[in-house]
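Need residues for this backbone.
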């Protein structure tokens, strides 16, 4: 009889899939944050910074200057 970790088979696979989907969610969140930073004029090396008199909320994209460029 095996001793140790009782998790095996389908349960182990579902735990692995859960961990993998958590990583995918984090990747998507990181990518959208990077896109928002680039649109707002920040680079990935900039920290929270005062940009054009506006403090962006995390996850928010400031498009005020963007529309005037169209």
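Answer:
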């Amino acid at each position: 009889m095996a001793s140790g970790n009782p998790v095996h088979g389908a349960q182990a696979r579902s735990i692995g899939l859960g961990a993998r989907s958590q990583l995918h969610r984090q990747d998507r969140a990181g990518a959208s944050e990077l896109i928002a930073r680039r649109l707002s004029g920040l680079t990935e090396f900039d920290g929270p910074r005062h940009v054009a008199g506006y403090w962006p909320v995390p996850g928010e994209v400031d498009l005020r200057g963007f529309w005037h460029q169209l």
